[in-house]
């Protein structure tokens, strides 16, 4: 009988009861849908207003089932007859004193409320009518749809509904038009984008760092013979690779095993390179603090300490001087942010649902969003830098059953999974098209995509004065 093992950081796996942690449950379905959402038969949740609109939003067509949509084919402000739902009357035929249905259902007591449309248009922003049995019904002209208040019309967000563009989406009249980020080219399918720079993945599996070609799929060993490497990052312009070793408690740089941080480390897990100002940031898991130094290890200082319980992952956007990190605090699992000098600290996401172990964290520099994976809910989430715009990208998939690290490239999110020993990818907005990139014999840890888009250029904040380690908040606002 195997005892379920719990994940804290990837350094030790011990029985859950010894750590006071909850056992992971593999492959569970998504929980109940939220108000205003429709529960598909495949456990997917979509917006209620997408039901019976002619589109297969559930992907199993359960939102367009005939038994569900029979009474909804005739959409407001039109109205079906009570005894014959195949008859769909336009609004001008309702409450006009004529029994057009033959059963009186297009007339009735509620027709007395017709005057309601004469008073402030019934509260409707555009079209107002009265339907028997329903009262005032608001509707919208072509190209618009009712908002959440069912009264105000807004321009239909085709981009929000039809998430087919891999990068940028523009609304062209009543259609969706895809485009690409600067430097990318639109593929013939009109949806995908490509970049002439050949990207590749670098990832660690304790004892070596590997490289995977994203186009051909083949891999090679970059750095062999390591003790226990966990976190890694790179500096594109300097062609340098950085990684942590939690057995030797050191931070290394490059292929020559140059030690840049050697003493006083206690389980350095998360690691992030500031490619603009030339610094490295890391998480000290045992000391529950975040430290920073120059790329060569000099000018080392403790950046954040106190009120940090179990820091795990770290990510940066040096263009705006923002630092993000995850915290496994048992009483309040969360994601925090601060300026890269440690000022302006704030919580941008509190885990109050089924999550609780925010494991990996990365930044979408093109969309100004963060993405993280949670090893308790086995899910990938996304939000804007200030924590708003929160969405669930993917949950409970076969290859998302014990995730550890996450990164991005273009329109796809990449992650490592311990239970299946895989590197996988999916659409960063919808979680669709889950694909295994690489299978490994041992558990994969951190991963990055080596590509210029993952380190966009910008000017060092603070005008290049001082040590370059966080003068930026005086020049640009952090998190708004």
TrEMBL record:
Name of the protein in question: Uncharacterized protein
Lineage: Eukaryota, Metazoa, Chordata, Craniata, Vertebrata
Keyword field contains Oxidoreductase: no
GO MF term list: low-density lipoprotein particle receptor activity
Disulphide-bonded residues: 33-45, 40-58
Ranges occupied by LDL-receptor class B repeats: 278-320, 321-367
PROSITE patterns listed in its UniProt record: LDLRA_1 (PS01209), LDLRA_2 (PS50068), LDLRB (PS51120)
Gene Ontology CC annotations of this record: plasma membrane; receptor complex
PANTHER family in UniProt: LOW-DENSITY LIPOPROTEIN RECEPTOR-RELATED PROTEIN 1B, LOW-DENSITY LIPOPROTEIN RECEPTOR-RELATED PROTEIN 2-RELATED
Entry keywords, A to Z: Calcium, Disulfide bond, EGF-like domain, Endocytosis, Glycoprotein, Membrane, Receptor, Repeat, Transmembrane, Transmembrane helix
InterPro entries the UniProt entry points to: 6-blade_b-propeller_TolB-like (IPR011042), EGF (IPR000742), LDL_receptor-like_sf (IPR036055), LDLR-related (IPR051221), LDLR_class-A_CS (IPR023415), LDLR_classB_rpt (IPR000033), LDrepeatLR_classA_rpt (IPR002172)
Region (Disordered): 456-480
Predominant location category: membrane
Location of this chain's protein in the cell: Membrane
């Amino acid at each position: 009988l195997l005892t379920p093992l719990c994940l804290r950081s990837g350094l030790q796996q011990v029985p859950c009861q010894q750590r006071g942690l909850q056992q992971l449950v593999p492959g569970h379905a998504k929980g109940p849908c939220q108000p205003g959402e429709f529960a598909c038969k495949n456990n997917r949740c979509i917006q209620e207003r997408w039901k019976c609109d002619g589109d297969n939003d559930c992907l199993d067509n359960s939102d367009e089932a005939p038994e569900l949509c029979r009474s909804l084919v005739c959409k407001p402000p039109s109205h079906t007859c009570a005894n014959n739902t195949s008859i769909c009357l336009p609004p001008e035929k309702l409450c006009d004193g004529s029994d057009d249905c033959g059963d009186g259902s297009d007339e009735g007591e509620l027709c007395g409320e017709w005057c309601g449309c004469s008073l402030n248009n019934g509260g409707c922003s555009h079209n107002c009518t009265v339907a028997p049995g329903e009262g005032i019904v608001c509707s919208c002209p072509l190209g618009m749809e009712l908002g959440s208040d069912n009264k105000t019309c807004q321009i239909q967000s085709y981009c929000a509904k039809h998430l087919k563009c891999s990068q940028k989406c523009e609304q062209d009249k009543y259609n969706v038009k895809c485009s690409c980020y600067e430097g990318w080219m639109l593929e013939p399918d009109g949806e995908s984008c490509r970049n002439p720079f050949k990207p590749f993945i670098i990832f660690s599996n304790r004892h070596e760092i590997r490289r995977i070609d994203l186009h051909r799929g083949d891999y090679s060993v970059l750095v062999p013979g390591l003790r226990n490497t966990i976190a890694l990052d790179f500096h594109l312009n300097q062609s340098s690779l950085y990684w942590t070793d939690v057995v030797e408690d050191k931070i290394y740089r490059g292929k020559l095993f140059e030690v840049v941080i050697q003493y006083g480390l206690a389980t350095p897990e998360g690691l992030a390179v500031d490619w603009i100002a030339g610094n490295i940031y890391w998480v000290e898991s045992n000391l529950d603090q975040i430290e920073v130094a120059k790329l060569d290890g000099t000018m080392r200082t403790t950046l954040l300490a106190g009120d940090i319980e179990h820091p795990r992952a770290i990510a940066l956007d040096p263009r705006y001087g923002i630092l993000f990190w995850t915290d496994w605090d048992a009483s309040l699992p969360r994601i925090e942010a601060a300026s890269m000098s440690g000022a302006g600290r704030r919580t941008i996401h509190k885990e109050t649902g089924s999550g609780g172990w925010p494991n990996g964290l990365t930044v979408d520099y093109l969309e100004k969003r963060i993405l993280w994976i949670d090893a308790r809910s086995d899910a990938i989430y996304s939000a804007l830098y200030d924590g708003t715009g929160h969405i669930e990208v993917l949950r409970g998939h076969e290859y998302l059953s014990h995730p550890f690290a996450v990164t991005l490239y273009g329109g796809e999110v990449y992650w490592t999974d311990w239970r299946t020993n895989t590197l996988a990818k999916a659409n960063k907005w919808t979680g669709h098209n889950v694909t295994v990139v690489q299978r490994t014999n041992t558990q994969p840890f951190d991963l990055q995509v080596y590509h210029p888009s993952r380190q966009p250029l910008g000017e060092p904040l603070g005008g290049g004065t001082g040590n370059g380690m966080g003068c930026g908040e005086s020049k640009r606002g952090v998190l708004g």
